[in-house]
Design goal:
Layout lengths: L1 H14 L2 H19 L4 H9 L8 H26 L8 H12 L3 H35 L3 H18 L4 H15 L2 E2 L6 E2 L13 H19 L1 H9 L13 H22 L5 H16 L13 H17 L1 H7 L5 H12 L8 H4 L1 H30 L6 H20 L2 H19 L5 H23 L6 H4 L1 H32 L1
Length: 508
C-alpha cells in the first residue's frame, strides 16, 4: 500500500505536466459533450479520436481517451434528466428517476446530485484501482461465462417487477426488449432472426435510435396529445431557482450511504469482463430499492435523488473499475476499454501484470490523471448546470420542435442512415402507446441491453462445458445467483398471497 501511494504521487507529478494536463482537460470536456449529445457515446467518441492520438506520446493519448470515457458518464446525465433522452445506455436509470424531478421543477437539484454522485463514484473507483487493482482483477477472473450469465439472468428476472407497479406489465416490456434484441444475424450460427427479408435489419436494431425514440420522441407525442402532460410541463416554466438547486448538507449526508454502496458495487461490476456501467447502474438501483429508506418512492414516476445517486455513482465507478482488468490482465471490461486496448497495442504496450513493472510512468501517470480529470469534470459539469437549466424555460411550442430535431439528428448520426431515423420514429410511437397503457419503457430498454450479453455468456459457458447445462449449478458463484433469481421470481407471488390472506383475516 505504501509503495502504491509513492507511485501515485509520482503519477500525479507526471499527470500535471503541461502536455498531459492539457490532454486531460480536452478529454474531460469532449467526454461531457459526447455524453450529453444523444447518438454519439463513449465508444464512438474514443474510436473517432483514436487515430488522432497516434501523433502524440502514449501517456497523453491514453489520458485523453480515458477522459472521454469517464467524462461521458458525467455528460449522459444532462440529456437524461432534462430531456428524458439518455445520451448513452448507463444513463437509462438516471432518466428514469431524474426526469420526473425535472417535471417538478427540480432539474437543477437533480443535475447537482448527478455531478456529486459521479464525482464520489469515480473517486471511489479510482481509489480501488490505486490500492488493490491487481487483487480485484484476480477476483474478477473467477467470474467466467457461467457466473456472468447467472448474474445477468438474476438482473433480467428482477427487471419486470422492480421497475413497475404491475409485475405482469413489467414482464411484458421485458419480453419485448428481449425480442427486439434478437433481431438481426446470429453471431454464432449466422442465421437470420426476425429480419423478414429486410437487409437493413441484418445488423439488428441499434441502441441509440431505439432509446432516443423510446424516451425522447414519445415525450413530445405525449405533450402534443395529452392536456394533463402539457399542464404539468408548463407548471414550472420560469420558476426554476438556481439557489434552491444546491444540495444541502443534510441531503448530501443522506445520499452518502447510497454513494458508497453504489460505488463499491459499480467498481466490482466494472471489472467483470463485458458487464459495463449499464449493468452496474441497474444492479445498484436494485440494491437501493431493497435497502434505502426512500425505496417506496423509487418507482420511476415520483423521481428521487437516491435513484439518481445510485445510477451515477455506479456507472462512474464502473468506468474506473473497467481499467483494473484492462491494465492488470489486458482484458477489456467494456466496449470502450476494448477500444482503449486497441490503442495500447498500437502504441506497443502490452497490458498485463508486467505493465506495472515495465511501464510505471505510463500506468501511474494514467491513474494520477484520473484523479485530476475527475475534479475537472466535476468543475465543468457544475459550471454548466445554470446554462443547461435555462433550456427548460423555453416554451413547449418551441421546445418540442427542438427535441424532435435533436431526436432525428441523433438517430441519423448513429450510422448516417435514414433507416435509424425510421427505427427512432417507430420506437417513439411504440413507447407512446405503451405508456398510454401503463406499460413501462425502462424494462424494455434494460432487457434489450442485457439479453445479448446473457445469450453470449450462455453460449460461451456451454461451449466450454461441451454442452453440459449443469455447469450453471455446479459452480458455487453461478448457483448463488440462480438461487437469488429464483427467489426474485417467486417473491411477487408470495407477497400477493400473503396480502390476500391478511386482508381476509382483517375482514373476518
Amino acid at each position: 500500500m505504501a509503495e502504491n501511494f509513492q507511485m501515485l504521487i509520482r503519477g500525479l507529478g507526471i499527470a500535471i505536466s503541461p502536455m498531459n494536463l492539457f490532454a486531460c482537460i480536452i478529454g474531460g470536456i469532449m467526454g461531457l459533450i459526447v455524453g450529453a449529445v444523444p447518438g454519439i457515446g463513449a465508444v464512438a467518441g474514443c474510436s473517432l479520436l483514436l487515430p488522432i492520438t497516434y501523433s502524440i506520446n502514449p501517456t497523453a493519448a491514453i489520458i485523453m481517451l480515458a477522459g472521454i470515457y469517464y467524462g461521458n458518464m458525467y455528460g449522459g446525465a444532462y440529456s437524461a434528466i432534462l430531456l428524458n433522452i439518455p445520451g448513452d445506455s448507463p444513463a437509462v436509470i438516471t432518466a428514469l428517476e431524474g426526469h420526473p424531478l425535472t417535471k417538478k421543477g427540480l432539474a437543477g437539484k437533480a443535475l447537482y446530485t448527478a455531478n456529486y454522485a459521479s464525482f464520489i463514484g469515480g473517486t471511489i473507483g479510482i481509489l480501488f484501482l490505486t490500492a488493490i487493482g491487481a487483487p480485484l482483477a484476480r477476483i474478477g477472473l473467477k467470474f467466467g461465462p457461467a457466473e456472468t450469465a447467472s448474474l445477468i439472468f438474476m438482473a433480467l428476472t428482477s427487471i419486470g417487477w422492480l421497475l413497475g407497479d404491475n409485475p405482469a406489465k413489467g414482464l411484458i416490456a421485458t419480453g419485448l426488449g428481449v425480442m427486439i434484441s434478437n433481431i438481426g444475424m446470429d453471431a454464432s450460427s449466422a442465421n437470420f432472426r426476425y429480419t423478414f427479408g429486410s437487409t437493413s435489419l441484418l445488423s439488428g436494431i441499434d441502441f441509440i435510435p431505439l432509446v432516443i425514440g423510446m424516451f425522447g420522441l414519445s415525450q413530445v407525442l405525449l405533450l402534443m396529445t395529452d392536456n394533463s402532460a402539457q399542464a404539468e410541463a408548463n407548471k414550472f416554466k420560469g420558476k426554476l431557482k438556481l439557489r434552491e438547486s444546491f444540495l444541502k448538507k443534510k441531503e448530501m449526508t443522506r445520499l452518502l450511504p447510497t454513494n458508497i454502496r453504489a460505488s463499491i458495487l459499480g467498481t466490482f461490476i466494472g471489472f467483470l469482463p463485458g458487464a459495463g456501467g449499464t449493468t452496474g447502474g441497474f444492479l445498484s438501483y436494485m440494491l437501493e430499492k431493497k435497502v434505502n429508506k426512500n425505496r417506496d418512492k423509487m418507482d420511476g414516476k415520483q423521481g428521487t435523488l437516491e435513484g439518481i445517486c445510485a445510477s451515477e455513482s455506479a456507472n462512474n465507478a464502473a468506468a474506473a473499475g473497467a481499467f483494473i482488468p484492462l491494465l492488470s490482465f489486458g482484458i477489456p471490461g467494456s466496449s470502450t476499454t476494448a477500444v482503449l486496448l486497441g490503442g495500447l497495442l498500437a502504441w506497443g504496450l502490452k497490458p498485463g501484470p508486467l505493465l506495472f513493472q515495465n511501464e510505471p510512468d505510463f500506468v501511474w501517470g494514467l491513474i494520477g490523471s484520473m484523479y485530476i480529470g475527475n475534479i475537472i469534470c466535476l468543475a465543468i459539469g457544475m459550471a454548466a448546470i445554470p446554462f443547461m437549466v435555462k433550456l427548460l424555460k423555453i416554451q413547449n411550442n418551441i421546445l418540442a420542435p427542438m427535441i424532435i430535431v435533436v431526436c432525428i439528428v441523433g438517430a441519423y448520426a448513429n450510422n448516417n442512415s435514414m433507416f435509424d431515423v425510421v427505427v427512432m420514429l417507430a420506437a417513439g410511437v411504440l413507447s407512446y402507446f405503451m405508456q398510454k397503457k401503463g406499460i413501462g419503457v425502462t424494462p424494455l430498454i434494460l432487457a434489450y441491453v442485457l439479453a445479448p450479453l446473457f445469450e453470449m455468456k450462455v453460449r460461451q459457458a456451454l461451449a466450454i462445458s461441451n454442452g453440459d447445462i449443469t455447469t450453471f449449478v455446479t459452480k458455487p458463484i453461478s448457483l448463488f445467483f440462480l438461487l437469488v433469481a429464483f427467489t426474485l421470481l417467486i417473491a411477487p407471488v408470495i407477497v400477493k398471497t400473503v396480502k390476500k390472506k391478511t386482508e381476509k383475516r382483517s375482514l373476518a
